[in-house]
Structures are given as structure tokens and as C-alpha cells.
């Protein structure tokens, strides 16, 4: 399952009158850039360029959401594995309200596998120590992948199976059950089969697609 897809689904379960999702896509920039992105997501007027000024603006907006509008802001940082170590060392200060006694701004970090490695660095410990839950998305199994591909074929009006059982196994093995990789392999295999004017994708077509992708 794609992490962003799973995250969007989870956020859609939050009632809009009670929660205010704040979605930020991380970059390899400085903490100042992250603060600017957050200010933009909160519809704040930028009144300065210093970290202290931006942090004060962000905190004021968060307090307004919590105390005046009675909403819980939820900060989501997608692609968090792109963040620099110096940003991870400081980003926990966003969560500190009333001497770090009020959890006014819950934060969700989403990223690739090496995000877990970044959080083990000594400089990341102030943030890592605040994490109360961790989850790793696993790839889907072979049976679910077959159902997934059949569903997308039906959307296009195709009801007969275009992938042989061997091809489905090859796609699952080549993708590790990760949907984005499976999509690329399936598309490439379909193109390879069409080039040979063959009605059903075989495992060999998947191998050709994998070679092209590499």
C-alpha cells in the first residue's frame, strides 16, 4: 500500500469540525523553510523571516485553533525521510506549549524506511522520545495483488483476465507487494505482450518489463 494513500484515507476519517489536518510535504531545506510551509498551510501572514518570529506565529495560530475554534490541529509531514538531521533536531519545538505540558499539536511523520534510522541519531532523540506509536506498511500478498489488478482492469471495461497466474506471481515477486512498483511492472508487461500481439501477459513479459524499468 502506498503510504500517502493510506495517510489520506486515515485523515479522511477525522471529523472536519473537530480536527484540522495540516499537511506539509518535507524537503531537504532548512527548518526555516519548514516553518514557512507550515505558516502557508495555516494561512498565516508572514510577518518576518526569523525562526523565532515564524515559530511565534505558528504557535499563536495553533492556540487559536485549539482554544477559540475548538479544533485539534494535526500536523502531517509527508516525505519526512527527506528532512535534514538539523531539522529533526529542532522540529520537536513546534510541539511545546505551556512548558511542554499541553499536547496541542499532534504530529505524524511519514517517510521511507530510512526515516527510522534518522530518528536513532543522538540529535534526533528529543523528537524520537516523543513518538508514541510507530507503524511500518507491509506490501500486499499475492492474492490481494491479483484482486487489485483485476479491479483496475474492470474499471477500464475489461472483464477477462489479462495476466496469467505465472505473470501475477512474477509481478508480486518483482514488486515485493508494493503497489507503485506493481503498477509499473504490470503496465510494462502489458506493453510487452501487446508488442508481440499476445492476448495474455506471461511471466516472460514481466521479466522484460523489469529489465526496462531497471
What gross morphology would you assign? elongated
How far apart, in Å, are the first and last alpha carbons?
22 Å
Number of strands: 3
> What order do the strands of the largest sheet run in, or round the barrel if closed?
1-2-3
| Estimated structural class | mainly alpha
| Count of runs of 4 or more consecutive helical residues | 10
Q: Name the average pLDDT.
A: 91
User: What does the largest sheet look like?
Assistant: 3 strands, parallel
Helix content: 40-55%
Cα-atom radius of gyration: 22 Å
**How much beta, percentage-wise?**
5-15%
What is the chain-wise order of helices and strands? HEHHEHEHHHHHH
The quaternary state of the protein chains shown equals single chain
Low-confidence stretches: none
Give a structural overview:
The chain has 214 residues and is mainly alpha-helical. 49% of the residues lie in helices and 8% in strands. The chain is built from ten helices and three strands; from the N terminus they run H-E-H-H-E-H-E-H-H-H-H-H-H. Strands 1-2-3 form a three-stranded parallel β-sheet. Helix 4 links the parallel strand 2 (72-78) and strand 3. Helix 8 (165-175) packs across helix 9 (179-195) and helix 8 runs parallel beside helix 10. The longest helix has 18 residues, at 51-68. The model has no long low-confidence stretch (mean pLDDT 91).
Amino acid at each position: 500500500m502506498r503510504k500517502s494513500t493510506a495517510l489520506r484515507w486515515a485523515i479522511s476519517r477525522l471529523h472536519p469540525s473537530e480536527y484540522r489536518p495540516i499537511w506539509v510535504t518535507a524537503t531537504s531545506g532548512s527548518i526555516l523553510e519548514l516553518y514557512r510551509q507550515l505558516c502557508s498551510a495555516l494561512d498565516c501572514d508572514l510577518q518576518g523571516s526569523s525562526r523565532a518570529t515564524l515559530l511565534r506565529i505558528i504557535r499563536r495560530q495553533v492556540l487559536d485553533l485549539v482554544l477559540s475554534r475548538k479544533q485539534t490541529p494535526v500536523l502531517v509531514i509527508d516525505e519526512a525521510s527527506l528532512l535534514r538531521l538539523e531539522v529533526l533536531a529542532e522540529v520537536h519545538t513546534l510541539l511545546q506549549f505551556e512548558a511542554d505540558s499541553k499536547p496541542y499539536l499532534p504530529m505524524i511523520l511519514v517517510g521511507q524506511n530510512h526515516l527510522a534510522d534518522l530518528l536513532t541519531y543522538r540529535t534526533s532523540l528529543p523528537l524520537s522520545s516523543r513518538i508514541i506509536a510507530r507503524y511500518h506498511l507491509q506490501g500486499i500478498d499475492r492474492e490481494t495483488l491479483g484482486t487489485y489488478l483485476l479491479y483496475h482492469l474492470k474499471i477500464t471495461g475489461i472483464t477477462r483476465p489479462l495476466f496469467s497466474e505465472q505473470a501475477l506471481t512474477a509481478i508480486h515477486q518483482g514488486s515485493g507487494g508494493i503497489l507503485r512498483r506493481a503498477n509499473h511492472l504490470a503496465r510494462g508487461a502489458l506493453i510487452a505482450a501487446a508488442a508481440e500481439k499476445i492476448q495474455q501477459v506471461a511471466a516472460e513479459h514481466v521479466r522484460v518489463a523489469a529489465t526496462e524499468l531497471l
